[in-house]
Design brief:
single chain; alpha/beta; Rossmann fold; eleven-stranded mixed β-sheet; 8 helices
């Protein structure tokens, strides 16, 4: 079946996004007559009937889809019918609320489709429309005849409706629907349990700096109610989230251990640097001592060389004196008086 699914059989992102759009609209439908255009397999029509809509007309062009809806999503307040949106010709001003999700992008004549919807909506009724942000997300889908920007969607709706509010939908661990600059609503909590999916309509969300996956608009010829931020998640999404948290905690512990290791290495490095500086200072002192010893050795060698030269000179002097003395003695021995005195024993011969 063309882009149709039953979220009761799956809990992936696509299914959660489908649930979120209907969950977002639930506060509008209690006690109201609702037209669910392109109802698909009927789960959204069933959600609104269970939530308190007094009558829901589920309309789709697919006979196969309507057969499935009548089999699996029956309810006393729901009537399913096979019809093309462009052929919509039911009673004028019949419905309080019309939901038209992910449909206009499949329609050949968008302006005619919006006009048809406005004709069957009460003067103070609310139309809730969603289209995918194919251009912003750069998505190619062979079934989509139109690619809307936010301004194009709002512009098409504003040609017919006096009041149009823009909302945005993105999937960030859960499917979120929010409004930019949304004021704080009155304190209230609405919780809808749909299959195994929880749908919260509660509180607001600060403006998100993300490219929306989907544009949603509420429009009417009367002042529009302000719808709360909607968050829809499934158990599988939170299991996935818990897995990511576990991985992040492991990564945090790993990096904490790495940081502790680096801290210890830094302490060891500081200690090593201190020891190296001490060794450097020690070796510098030793080098200075060796330099001084070398200077002293050189001085001692210089002194020894001077002493050696001095002693050599002294030895030469003594040798010369000895030679001169021997010569003097020889000369004295040759003198006559020396012989006389030697004979008398006064001096040696």
């Amino acid at each position: 079946m063309l882009e149709r699914l039953d979220p009761a059989l799956r809990s992936d992102r696509l299914a959660i996004d489908h649930y979120a759009r209907y969950s977002f609209s639930l506060p509008l439908v209690r006690g109201k007559r609702v037209l669910d255009i392109a109802c698909g397999l009927g789960y959204g029509s069933h959600m609104m009937a269970v939530y308190g809509a007094v009558e829901v007309i589920g309309m789709d062009i697919s006979e196969e889809a309507i057969d499935y809806a009548q089999k699996f999503y029956k309810h006393d307040n729901i009537k399913y019918t096979i019809k093309d949106l462009l052929d919509l010709d039911v009673e004028y001003g019949l419905f309080d609320v019309i939901t038209c999700f992910e449909t206009l992008e499949h329609i050949s004549d968008v302006e005619l489709a919006i006009y048809r919807l406005s004709r069957v909506l009460k003067e103070d009724g609310v139309l809730v429309v969603s289209v995918p942000n194919d251009l912003g997300k750069k998505v190619e889908n062979k079934y989509h005849l139109h690619k809307f920007t936010e301004l194009e969607l709002i512009g098409d709706l504003a040609k017919i409706f006096r009041f149009v509010d823009a909302y945005y939908q993105s999937y960030i661990l859960a499917s979120l629907i929010w409004k930019k600059g949304h004021p704080n609503p009155p304190e209230e909590k609405n919780l809808a349990l749909v299959s195994n999916v929880r749908c919260y309509m509660n509180g607001t969300l600060d403006e998100l700096e993300v490219e929306p996956d989907c544009f949603i608009a509420t429009c009417s010829n009367s002042v529009l109610p302000s719808l709360s931020t909607t968050v829809v998640y499934s158990g599988s999404a939170w299991n996935e989230y818990s897995g990511w948290i576990g991985q992040l905690e492991e990564a945090r512990d790993y990096h904490a251990q790495q940081a502790e290791n680096w801290r210890r290495l830094a302490e060891d490095r500081a200690a090593w640097i201190g020891q190296l500086e001490e060794a450097r200072d020690y070796h510098a002192q030793q080098a200075e001592n060796w330099r001084r010893l070398a200077e002293d050795r050189a001085a001692w060698i210089g002194q020894l060389e001077e002493a050696r030269d001095y002693n050599a000179q002294q030895a030469e002097n003594w040798k010369r004196l000895a030679e001169e003395r021997a010569a003097w003695i020889e000369q004295i021995r040759r003198l006559p008086w020396h012989r006389i005195m030697a004979s008398l024993g006064i001096v040696p011969r």
